[in-house]
Design a protein that fits this description.
- The chain is built from 7 helices and 5 strands, in the order ααββααβαββαα.
- β4 and β5 form a beta hairpin.
Length: 223
């Protein structure tokens, strides 16, 4: 028990350290799931992230951002084709505390993808930055009764640190993008003032435009 608690403390400290780490989002999510695998009994674990609603939708949607122990394609297929599984995740997303599955609760995407028995164990903890839902941390085990209040508290601690790390990662990425855009716009402004002829200006603009808007090719047609 002491060794396990020390492992949990080390994992929590590792995830807390990701708050200030400059790592790409996919690597960040992988490291979070690695620490969850080390600390809690689970056959599979996944992180779901909230994506902004599309035009015409009123509520945000969930996307499968990272998964361990289960085929991602099958988990995503279950999520898309099974309304009951989607509703289970949405209920967990809106909860203020971890949702520990009871034997008669709906089967979630991970449980169905892994073809677990109906009494399998599942735990889902919301990722929140303040009042803003960022996503979910879910883990499952094929045996019943694997998750109780202590597992819920540990998972919630993981989820809280993970949410802050994800939010900081997004803010850092956004600031980098803004700095990059500002740099390109400054080069465009300098080009419009410093070029001597239209051919040179268009050549510079055709080179800078793909860097600014993320396209592969650019051309100007002059009347």
């Amino acid at each position: 028990s002491e060794v396990w608690r020390r492992q949990v403390a080390d994992s929590i400290r590792e995830i807390a350290g990701l708050v200030s780490a400059n790592v790409a989002l996919p690597d960040l999510l992988e490291r979070i799931l690695n620490e969850v695998d080390r600390s809690l009994p689970c056959d599979a674990a996944a992180i779901w992230l909230v994506v902004p609603p599309k035009e015409g939708d009123t509520i945000p949607a969930l996307m499968l951002a990272a998964v361990h122990g289960a085929p991602a394609e099958k988990v995503w297929e279950v999520f898309q084709n099974n309304p009951t599984a989607r509703e289970y995740l949405k209920e967990a997303l809106n909860a203020r505390s971890p949702l520990i599955r009871k034997p008669d609760d709906p089967i979630g995407p991970l449980g169905q993808a892994m073809e677990f028995p109906a009494d399998y164990s599942s735990l889902a903890a919301p990722l929140r930055a303040g009042d803003e839902p960022l996503g979910l941390l879910t883990l499952v085990h094929r045996m019943p009764g694997k998750y109780g209040s202590e597992a819920g508290l540990i998972t919630m601690t993981f989820a809280n640190h993970a949410a802050v790390a994800i939010q900081n990662n997004r803010l850092f990425t956004a600031s980098q993008e803004q700095a990059w855009i500002s740099t390109i716009l400054l080069q465009i402004a300098e080009a419009t003032q410093g070029t001597q002829n239209i051919e040179e200006l268009l050549d510079i603009m055709a080179r800078l435009t793909p860097m600014l808007v993320g396209v592969r090719k650019c051309a100007f047609f002059v009347w």
